[in-house]
Amino acid sequence: MAVKTAESRLEERWRDILSVHARTMCEIDRALHPHGLGASDFEVLDLLASEAPGEGDQCRVHNLAGRVHLSQSALSRLIARLEKDGLVERSVCTEDRRGVYVALTAKGRDLHTEVLPLQREVLARLLGGRAATHGSS
Predict the structure, then answer these.
(1) What gap in Å lies between CA 119 and CA 126, rounded to an integer?
(2) Of 95, 87, 40, which is closest to residue 64 (Cα–Cα)?
């Protein structure tokens, strides 16, 4: 019987984390697909709903980039698609023309409200209910 080293246990733990992440993202994709969203789409809508909770509230795209697990270019493409679907709107920062703001539209806010329970149910089911007590919005 091979004795596990600290390094092999760490590697095993890392692979377990990746596996849970992949399964969870796939299940969220599956649950949200009938609503025209994927897990990354939802993540952006969810962050906007929490970062800019009021009608017309905006969030800098730069601030989103640090919170979602996408490259800057992939996030820009995702936001462009959400904008095309009428779920978000972008605007340029008047003080710094390089800065871009994004906000949920009423349609985006309504869709987020509709699918939030689906995403939370997947988290609760796959993460053993921990999601229901940590970070519900």
Answers:
(1) 11
(2) 40
Write the class of the CATH domain 6-131.
mainly alpha
Summarize pLDDT for 41-75 with one digit per residue, the tens: 999 999 999 886 665 678 888 888 889 989 989 99
- Residue pair 31/122 in contact (Cβ under 8 Å)? The answer is yes
Beta strands in 2-137 (DSSP E): 59-60, 88-92, 100-104
Q: Rounded to an integer, what distance in angstroms lies between the CA atom of residue 83 and that of residue 70?
A: 17
Q: Are 76 and 113 contacting, i.e. CB atoms less than 8 angstroms apart?
A: no
Rg, Å, the chain Cα set: 18
Q: Report domain extents, the chain.
A: 6-131
Give the number of other CB atoms < 10 A from CB of residue 47: 18
Alpha carbon dihedral 33, 38, 39, 41, in 10-degree steps, equals: -140
